[in-house]
Amino acid sequence: MFSIGDKIVYPMHGAGIIESIEEKEILGEKKKYYVMKMPVGDMKVMIPINNVDCIGIRDIINKNDADKVFKSLEITCDEQTSNWNKRYRENMTKIKSGNVFEVAEVVKSLVLRERQKGLSTGERKMLNSAKQILISELVLAKNMNPMDVEELINERITT
After folding, report:
1. Is the Cα dihedral 123, 125, 110, 100 positive or negative?
2. Are 15 and 63 spatial neighbours (Cβ–Cβ below 8 Å)?
3. What is the CATH number of domain 7-59?
4. How far from the centroid of its chain's Cα atoms is residue 127's Cα?
5. What's the pLDDT score for residue 159?
6. CATH class of the region 63-156
7. Which DSSP state fits 51?
8. Domain ranges of the chain
């Protein structure tokens, strides 16, 4: 159970801070929700409390792990398959995992691919989404501004 003020990660959406816990009636059913404010995009997300475990909600990483994420972006990655469909599915699985290191790996591989060969529209959308998820968690973990975090990410990804 999380509390107001906790910094959490919602896989596929990103990290945020629980702003309130509210009870809402939807389709005749009353449920409690965490209301999470996202640091990137100034968005709010409602998360059903009874689904927290199956959704994969977790605490954000600490500063040391955030430093490890930045460091992981500097390490060269394995060449991904040239099959667009297979690559897309593999990357989507990593993003859905909610593991910040896997999301960073997706960001790194797509940025490198974009620099070398360009990206399809689908992969460009995936890169933007993965980057926002990664940035949102690093912003909260390092207490930094989103533009500075994005700059650090881009600086560390090298060919």
Report:
1. negative
2. no
3. 2.40.10.170
4. 11
5. 59
6. mainly alpha
7. G
8. 7-59, 63-156
pLDDT confidence of residue 78: 67
Contact assessment for residue 101 and residue 95, using Cβ atoms and an 8 Å cutoff: no
Series of mean pLDDT values for 10-residue runs along the chain (159 residues)? 95 94 91 92 89 91 97 80 86 95 95 89 95 96 95 88
Distance separating alpha carbons of residues 31 and 106, to the nearest angstrom:
34
Q: How far apart are CA 153 and CA 37, in angstroms?
A: 23
- Which residues 6+ apart lie within 8 Å of 73 measured at CB? 104, 107, 108, 153, 156, 157
The answer to whether the beta carbons of residues 152 and 74 sit under 8 Å apart is no
Domain 7-59 and domain 63-156 have a common topology: no
DSSP secondary structure letter of residue 159 = -
Compute how many other C-beta atoms are within 10 angstroms of the C-beta atom of residue 103. Answer: 27
> What residues contact 124, with CB distance under 8 A and at least 6 apart?
114
- For residue 15, the model assigns a pLDDT of 96
